[in-house]
Design a protein that fits this description.
This protein has six helices and eight strands. The chain is an alpha/beta fold and about 240 residues long.
Length: about 240
């Protein structure tokens, strides 16, 4: 190493921390005054036919910070119906009853089922028939060419002192000239109560407010009933 030329090593000195408790409190007050408190609305989290997400501690830096929680057999039908509708609209699944039933059967084997759940798993053939009836509804058939599934939505719903922020995903949204014109929400409820319907309407009303879309459809797939919601529908907790 005799041919190397020694150099003087320069050590950077850190500036002294002159922050006092009073300065810290003043800076904290400035940050608090500039921060906008948000009330978060996550409508999809309240849907019984959506996969719940739980927070976990990541063991490795690359691990996902969220995990899917186990679901009971009674909720499997709704989860499978939503997934099948998504795959049909994306073109991943062929619209044939036998193919739909086979895919439903496979999806049920992939879901995490509660060990203590004694309820019988849904019938894949019934699920396929429900899908066919839903797609055959005249209003859905007219909208189908324009529908895009699983549309993520993030928006501020109000500009008050404590605005509400919405984060979720719309089951399907209709586009015309690349602009949203209608919102569609699939529901697998067998016999929804009036309270359920009010909650679903409030959920869709929030989606309409967030997207600027004038109307939305709540599609009860089991009964074939469609409830339309307009942008003037009062908002509420969804």
């Amino acid at each position: 190493m005799s041919h190397l030329t020694p150099v003087i090593r320069v050590t950077d000195l850190e500036a002294a921390n002159t922050q006092t408790q009073e300065v810290f409190a003043t800076e904290g007050a400035v940050i608090a005054a500039a921060a906008t408190p948000l009330q978060w609305l996550r409508p999809s989290d309240h849907d019984p036919d959506r996969m719940p997400i739980g927070e976990v501690i990541a063991i490795e830096p690359g691990d996902a910070p969220e995990t899917e929680l186990p679901v009971g057999a009674g909720r499997v039908r709704g989860l499978v119906l939503h997934k099948l509708m998504e795959e049909l609209f994306t073109g991943e699944l062929v619209e044939e009853r036998s193919d739909i039933a086979a895919r439903a059967r496979l999806l049920m084997t992939q879901l995490i089922i509660d060990a203590d759940e004694d309820a019988q798993l849904p019938d894949p053939e019934e699920i396929a028939a429900t899908i066919e009836r839903t797609l055959a509804l005249p209003e859905i058939a007219r909208l189908r060419p324009s529908l895009v599934p699983e549309w993520p939505i993030y928006a501020i719903l109000s500009a008050s002192s404590e605005p509400a922020a919405l984060a979720g995903r719309i089951d399907a949204i209709g586009l015309q000239d690349n602009q949203p014109v209608v919102v569609v929400d699939w529901k697998s409820d067998v016999s929804p109560s009036e309270q359920d319907v009010r909650g679903h309407s409030a959920q869709v009303a929030n989606y309409l407010h967030a997207t600027g879309v004038p109307r939305g459809a709540i599609v009860y797939m089991t009964t074939g009933v469609i409830r339309w919601v307009t942008a003037s529908t009062p908002q509420g907790d969804a």
